[in-house]
Sequence to fold (249 residues):
Amino acid sequence: MRKKVIAGNWKMNMLPNEAIAFIEEFSQMVKDAKCEVILCVPYTDLFYSLLTAQNTNIKIGAQNMHWEEKGAYTGEVSAKMLKSIGVEYVIIGHSERRQYFAETDETVNKKVKAALANELKPIICVGETLEQREAGKAVELVTKQTRLALEGLTKGELSSIIIAYEPIWAIGTGKTATSEDANQMIKQIRNEVANIYGNEAAENIIIQYGGSVKSENAKELFTTSDIDGGLVGGASLKPEEFAKICLSV
Ligand code: PGA
Fold:
């Protein structure tokens, strides 16, 4: 049985004092949650969030990283740096990074490898645009993104990664993929993993859905056969709302 994993993606929101207040309140609400609860916070909140989340069941993640360990890369943060302060997870290849910051399948793959080499667990985002979906290319594109993100990884490493299927047209738009459509695509991703790594690895890998997840649709999405939880943007900014989502599984 795969465990459900629910991760909040705060994006570029929340000052440290807000992060601390959020986690203090939220940690009480989710202390009995059955799922793994993760908050992916801005770099400037990481240290405060890690301290505040100590002795709670909340895990802290970053939203990006560089693949090099150190060097002349002004403005970048490495996997080793994140690991050194106690970060456990890192989102890699979010569609906003692919769209606004020129991330490619190749840089995603480099980052995934660097994260794993530093014992960080990557949450790898894949997903199609509306045009690609309407052109009937969604499955082809998403399975290709998955394949390229995982290129060169060993079977054993798969247990340390999470894939998040996030159709771009559903992110921040209020439009959610139907639970059936989302589940269908996640099955296709799992199938692709099976093609490369075999059935057992595919059965065990955690694959989330992301895109306008809210307390009203969480349960329906997360009780399908293949959706193992969610990556939640907007609805993770309010403690009560995000707690409801975490407690829905
Ligand atoms: P959303 O964002 O829940 O606000 O649609 C999801 C994401 O971008 O990870």
About this structure: Strands lie at 5-9, 36-40, 58-62, 89-92, 121-126, 162-165, 206-210, 229-232.
